Amino acid sequence: MTAPKSTEVLFYHLEHRSLEGVLPELLERTLERGWRAVVQAGSQARVEVLDSHLWTYSDASFLPHGTARDGEPQRQPIVLTVGEDNPNSADVRFLVDGASLPDLTGYRRAVFLFDGRDDAAVAVARQQWKAVKAAGLDATYWQQSAQGRWEKKA
Asked: Distance between CA atoms of 149 and 152, rounded to whole angstroms?
């Protein structure tokens, strides 16, 4: 697979739905495209919560994934981590809960998800936006409407 020339960077401002409500849908779409994903959380506790949630979020389906404790990350279509590495050669990196900004080189897409009702999360997202722009990457900003749709704002 040829690496993309530039990583597409998306910032998703959550206002009407939680991360647990939005992340599974985005991961499903990622897998439907034949892409692999790594989800970088801000803490190991959050990784554990997301790990449990992705197995049980829907009665009709689950998202195949693993964490570092499962071993063999290269076999997982989705890996949950706190690290900045790319353990499964993912195409898309999701960053949640203020996860530190890793090197985004080689990813098709980087997706920052942050809670717009949390002032600290918004402040971290602003810092990440500035860092992404300073790195010369193009970024788009999406905000949730009251109907739960994503509206491009910048």
From this structure: 10
- Domain covering 8-147, topology: Rossmann fold (3.40.50)
Per residue in 24-56, pLDDT (tens digit) is 999 999 999 999 999 999 999 999 999 999 998
* DSSP labels, 77-114: SEEEESSSS-TT--SEEEEETT------TT-SEEEEEE
Local structure of residue 73 (DSSP, 8 states): G
The C-alpha atoms of residue 8 and residue 108 are separated, in whole angstroms, by 6
In tens, the pLDDT along 67-126 reads 988 889 999 999 999 999 999 999 999 999 999 999 999 999 999 999 999 999 999 999
State the Cα–Cα distance between residues 112 and 145, nearest whole angstrom. Answer: 17
Please choose, from the candidates 20, 25, 27, the residue with its C-alpha nearest in 3D space to the C-alpha of residue 92: 27
H helices present in the chain, as ranges:
19-32, 44-56, 119-134
Calculate the alpha carbon distances from 23 to 4, 17, 68, 111, 149 in Å. 23, 10, 19, 10, 14
Sequence ranges of the domains in the chain: 8-147
Angle at 117 between CA 113 and CA 118, to 5 degrees: 75
